[in-house]
Amino acid sequence: MTATAVSGLIDAISYLGLGHVFTANMTGNVVIIGFAAGGAPGFSVLGSLVSLAAFLVGAALAGRLESAMRHHPSPRRLRVTLVLEIVLLATATAVAFGSDHAFYVLIALIALAMGLRNGTVRKLSVPDVTTTVLTLTLTGLASDSALAGGTNPRAARRLASVLAMLAGALGGALLVRHTGLGWPLLAGTCGAVAAALAVPPSSSSG
Fold first, then answer.
1. Residue 129's pLDDT band (boundaries 50, 70, 90)?
2. Interatomic CA distance for residues 122 and 63, integer angstroms
3. 162 closest CA partner among 29, 8, 14
4. Cα–Cα distance, 130 to 125 (Å, whole number)
5. Tens digits of residue pLDDT in 66-115
6. How far, in Å, CA of 141 to CA of 108, rounded?
7. Could you report the per-residue pLDDT of 18-38, keeping only the tens digit for each?
8. Which of 92, 130, 147, 152 has the fewest CB atoms lying closer than 10 Å?
9. Nearest-5° angle of CA 201, CA 205, CA 206?
10. Quick count: other Cβ atoms within 10 Å of Cβ 182?
11. Where does residue 172 rank: exposed (0-12), middle (13-18), buried (19+ CB within 10 A)?
12. Higher pLDDT, 198 or 138
């Protein structure tokens, strides 16, 4: 759930601090491009395109990494991806502290990190563990509920994902508003470190 909270933090940073662009939620970027194409003010087509491109590169790299490490245990593959994410977020943090105008560099670095993570999580296929988009999680929470005649499978996990994303977005919004971009990016980097440390030993899973 730490990685999900980091995603909420990251999207708060990018949307509130980098010109209404998403770097974790690519659905949002596609919609934003549509808004901008329709003449709605305040949205960056270029920023969204940079984010989409970097995210896709990250996801493609995750696929290559999966192929190269397919004989290794899942925890090890996830840990390697999180280490790469930490490096990218740490680089973005340094850039943010060093410059007030490197928006596109920050967008590219962060979206690349999120693409890597999403590509890896998708390959691992853990039920109801989503780190960037909650639409399917919320759909499952409602459609499988007792009210809908279901048995509430994994309801606690689904709800925890929603709350983690909300907490990350709230913390990110507060940090961006009061400190700028450097400190929330540092917090995101630390969150990625915590997520990597929480990955179980490779010997526990194949």
1. low
2. 10
3. 8
4. 9
5. 889 888 888 888 889 999 999 999 999 999 999 988 999 999 999 999 99
6. 33
7. 999 999 889 999 999 999 989
8. 147
9. 125
10. 18
11. buried
12. 198
pLDDT digit string, tens, across residues 135-146 = 777 777 888 888
Give me the residue spans of the domains in the chain.
2-201
Side chain identity, residue 93 = T
Degrees, nearest 5: CA angle 199-89-176:
115
Query: Which string of b and e fits 25-42 if b means at least 16 CB within 10 Å?
Result: bbebbeebbeebeeeeee
Residue bearing tokens 């549509």 = 34
pLDDT of residue 184 exceeding 80 = yes
Topology (CATH level 3) of domain 2-201: Growth Hormone; Chain: A; (1.20.1250)
Find out whether 74 and 206 touch, Cβ atoms under 8 Å.
yes
- In this structure, the chain runs to a length of 206
Type and span of the H or E element at 13: helix 2-17
